[in-house]
Amino acid sequence: VGIEDKEMGKLLVKYPWILSNCIQKNYGEIVFLLSAEK
User: Taxonomically, which superkingdom (predicted)?
Assistant: First the structure.
């Protein structure tokens, strides 16, 4: 979970709009962005 928290922190810095939306709603998009980063 700690690693995921760090990844989420990086995402929130890069994509602050994630916070302005419901994270549950955009979870699929967040996972897609994470997989695209690697």
Answer: Eukaryota
Domain with 24 in it: 2-37
Is the model's pTM score more than 0.85? no
Q: 32 to each of 8, 12, 26, 29, how far by Cα in Å?
A: 13, 14, 10, 5
12: Cβ contacts below 8 Å, ≥ 6 apart: 18, 19
Q: Looking at the predicted structure, is the pLDDT value of residue 17 above 80? A: no
Number of structural domains found in the chain = 1
